[in-house]
Write a structure and sequence with these properties.
Layout (H helix, E strand, L loop, with lengths): L1 H23 L9 H8 L3 H7 L3 H20 L7 H17 L1 H7 L6 H23 L3 H24 L6 H17 L3
Helix pairs in contact: 1-2, 1-6, 4-5, 4-7, 5-6, 5-9, 7-8, 8-9
Length: about 190
C-alpha cells in the first residue's frame, strides 16, 4: 500500500513540476498562481499544499533536483584524462536533452538567477579543481579560465536548446570539448 502512495506522490509532484515549467515558459514566477498550476496539473489546491508550501518551494525543489543530478554527474568522474572530460560532458548533455523543457526554461529569462548562478558555481568549482589537480594550472589562472569556459559552455548549451537540439549530445560535447581543449592548451 505504501508503494502505491509513494507512486501517487511521485506522480503528483511530477505533474506539478511539469505544470510550473509549462507556465514559466511564458511568464516569470511572480506572475504565476497556485490556481493556474493546479488547473494545468488537474489537481486541487489542497493537494498542492500537501506537497509544497508555495510556488517558490515548488521551484526550489525542482531546481535542487536538477542541481543534485548535475553535481552527481560532475563528481562521478576523475578527469585524469581527456576521455573522462569528454565523457562527463556527454553525460551532462544527455541529462540536459532528457530534461530539455526544464533546463531550457530554468536557464531562460523566466528562470531563477540563483539557480543559474548555482549551476555556474558548481561547474566552475569542478573545473578549477580539475585544472589545478591534473593540469598543474595555478589556482588564480584556473579561476579565470573556468569563468570563461563555463559561461561560454552554458551559452552554447542554451543556444543548442533554442535550436531544438539540432546536434546530438555527443556531437555537442565534442564541440564544447574541442573549444575547451584548444583554449586550455596554451596554459599547459
Amino acid at each position: 500500500m505504501s508503494e502505491k502512495l509513494d507512486r501517487r506522490k511521485q506522480y503528483t509532484r511530477m505533474v506539478l513540476k511539469n505544470s510550473l515549467i509549462e507556465l514559466l515558459q511564458d511568464k516569470p514566477i511572480n506572475m504565476i498562481s497556485v490556481k493556474e498550476i493546479c488547473h494545468i496539473a488537474d489537481i486541487n489546491r489542497s493537494t498542492f499544499y500537501a506537497h509544497y508550501t508555495d510556488l517558490y518551494d515548488l521551484l526550489q525543489q525542482l531546481e535542487e533536483e536538477i542541481i543534485q543530478d548535475i553535481k552527481g554527474t560532475l563528481t562521478s568522474y576523475t578527469y585524469t584524462n581527456e576521455e573522462d572530460s569528454l565523457a562527463v560532458t556527454i553525460k551532462l548533455l544527455e541529462y540536459i536533452a532528457e530534461h530539455s523543457n526544464s533546463c531550457q526554461t530554468l536557464f531562460s529569462e523566466h528562470g531563477s538567477p540563483s539557480f543559474q548562478n548555482e549551476v555556474i558555481h558548481i561547474a566552475q568549482d569542478c573545473a578549477i579543481d580539475q585544472w589545478v589537480t591534473y593540469n598543474n594550472i595555478p589556482p588564480h589562472i584556473a579561476e579565470y579560465i573556468s569563468l570563461f569556459m563555463v559561461n561560454g559552455s552554458i551559452r552554447v548549451i542554451q543556444q543548442w536548446l533554442k535550436n531544438g537540439m539540432d546536434q546530438t549530445p555527443k556531437e555537442m560535447a565534442e564541440i564544447i570539448h574541442e573549444f575547451s581543449e584548444r583554449g586550455i592548451a596554451s596554459f599547459t
